[in-house]
Amino acid sequence: MNEYTIFQVDAFTTRLFGGNPAAVVPLADWLDEATLQNIAQENNLSETAFFTRSDQDDADFHLRWFTPGAEIDLCGHATLATAHVLFNELDWYEETLRFSTQEAGILTVSRGEGSRLSLDFPARPGAAIETSHELVDALGIQPLAVYKARDHMALFATEADVLKVTPDMDKLCRINPDGVIITAPSQDPEVDFVSRFFAPNHGVPEDPVTGSAHCTLVPFWADKLGKTTLEARQVSARGGELSCIYDGDQGRVYMSGQAVTYLKGAIFV
Fold first, then answer.
1. Same domain as 229, residue 133
2. How far apart are CA 165 and CA 163, in angstroms?
3. Domain that holds residue 262
4. Which of 174, 162, 163, 164 is nearest to 137 (CA)?
5. CATH code of residue 161
6. Are 77 and 92 found together in one domain?
7. Three-state secondary structure along 14-67?
8. pLDDT exceeding 90 applies to what percent of the chain?
9. Which of these, 152, 146, 194, lies nearest to 173 by C-alpha position?
10. Dihedral angle, C-alpha 253, 220, 201, 25, nearest 10 °
11. Which sites are catalytic (predicted)?
12. Which of 5, 17, 94, 103 has its CA 20 to 30 A from that of 130?
């Protein structure tokens, strides 16, 4: 049995018990996939991030993310949490971190103003699709329109509509294997749009704050509102705030936020 350090970090928030909690586990060498999945399942958080040092010239670390149910291809809040751990707990000395990932390419996280960190992620614009009866039935309310990239994204008229959605998770599981985003304009004049995200197939009925969903949300709202700098709020029970920039020419979404360390301990595997 071996001992490994573990951190738990609340991401996309300035306060404990806000934002989205993620576990972060530094590794000297990769454990087998079944063990990584078991650790994530035991943590029972929306994501557990694992990282090792990288021997690639264009990356400092290799990064992987696991939900309680499966490994996923992209995760924003656990990347922010990992960067927070490296910068603030493990004394990473550079101003930028470069993460090599299995499917999302090289992701960078840079120190921003104050304690803010900025993530450079691939844009994933959604394409308009027909609104299915199955999706309406699962959400319990008719959206204005539906789009699809990795996730389905349903557009609603008001923030109140987004807040009152109480999806049938069993039915939602049959809509998309990854997740379903719902979104609307914000009622707060300081915020451009709000969203919620559901991923019941991954053991995450509602995710508190979802960076990867904003890879689809930000291109959509940038085009709809005619602006490239946007303030976003995920209106889950815990809630979270993201400042976003869309670079359509380069196909990138930049998200910035803060994080707070909640826990540091050890696991024995």
1. yes
2. 6
3. 3-122+256-268
4. 174
5. 3.10.310.10
6. yes
7. CCCCCCEEEEEEECCCCCCHHHHHHHHHHHCCCEEEEEEECCCCCCCEEEEEEC
8. 97
9. 152
10. 10
11. 47
12. 103
pTM, two decimal places: 0.92
pLDDT of residue 60: 97
Q: What's the rounded mean pLDDT across residues 2-10?
A: 98
Q: Could you tell me if 231 and 3 are in contact, meaning their C-beta atoms sit under 8 angstroms apart?
A: no
The pLDDT value given to residue 126 = 98
Q: What are phi and psi of 19, to 5 degrees?
A: 60, -150
Catalytic residues: 47
Q: What pLDDT sits at residue 113?
A: 84
Distances (CA, A) of 120 to 17, 76, 127, 240: 25, 10, 22, 18
Q: Mark whether 74 and 114 lie in a shared domain.
A: yes
What tens digit of pLDDT does each residue of 72-82 get? 999 999 999 99
CA distances for 239 relative to 16, 120, 236, 246, angstroms: 12, 22, 5, 22
Helix, strand and coil percent figures for the chain, each rounded to 5: 20, 40, 40
Question: Hey, what's the torsion of the CAs at 125, 129, 132, 135, to 10 degrees?
Answer: 0
For tokens 């929306």, what's the residue?
46
Q: What is the pLDDT of residues 136-180, one digit of tens each?
A: 999 999 999 999 999 999 999 999 999 999 999 999 999 999 999
Under 8 Å between Cβ of 78 and 96: no
In the chain, the percentage of residues whose pLDDT exceeds 70 is 100
Q: 85 and 168, same structural domain?
A: no
d(CA 26, CA 45): 17
